[in-house]
Amino acid sequence: MNSTFMFINQTAILITRIQSDVSTRTTATTTTTTRAQYNATFFAQITYPTGSGSNPAPVFVVDVNLDNKPDIIVENYGDGKIGVFLNFGNGTFNSQTSYLSGIGSNTNPNSLSVTDVNSDNKPDIIVANQGADNIGVLFNNGS
Predict the structure, then answer these.
(1) What is the pTM of this model?
(2) Given CA atoms 86, 64, 91, 24 in this order, what sign does their dihedral have?
(3) How many CB atoms lie within 10 A of CB 2?
(4) Looking at domain 10-138, does it have CATH number 3.40.50.720?
(5) How far apart are CA 114 and CA 143, in angstroms?
(6) Which tens digit of pLDDT belongs to each residue from 50-79?
(7) Alpha-carbon distance 19 to 41, whole Å?
(8) From its phi and psi, is residue 106 left (phi > 0), alpha (psi between -120 and 50) or beta?
(9) How far apart (Å, rounded) are the C-alpha atoms in residues 18 and 112?
């Protein structure tokens, strides 16, 4: 069986195991996951809004709350925020929790990394703010 997938206005795709899922995102205002079946077909995509004018780019999959479920982190270039979608463990995610990527307006986050920078065994988010010419660190408070 041949299948054709058409993703309009996609700028990136990330493939990872989230209950055997594929995660992708659009350039508009949503983050999308598509669940894989074991016969090389996919369930219908589930779309998660990131906000009007957010321009999400790109997505990262990291267990940010240490519950052994991969969560989604997205840079929202357009509104200067970092979005986190916590994984319910059944292939779905909660609504986005947003964090400012830096101080001031037009921060335009364009790159991020996730690692434990303060040695507390919790993943922190480091973001490069192109519009503000700085970097920001979001320390994980564990809640």
Answers:
(1) 0.75
(2) positive
(3) 3
(4) no
(5) 17
(6) 999 999 988 899 999 999 999 999 999 999
(7) 14
(8) left
(9) 21
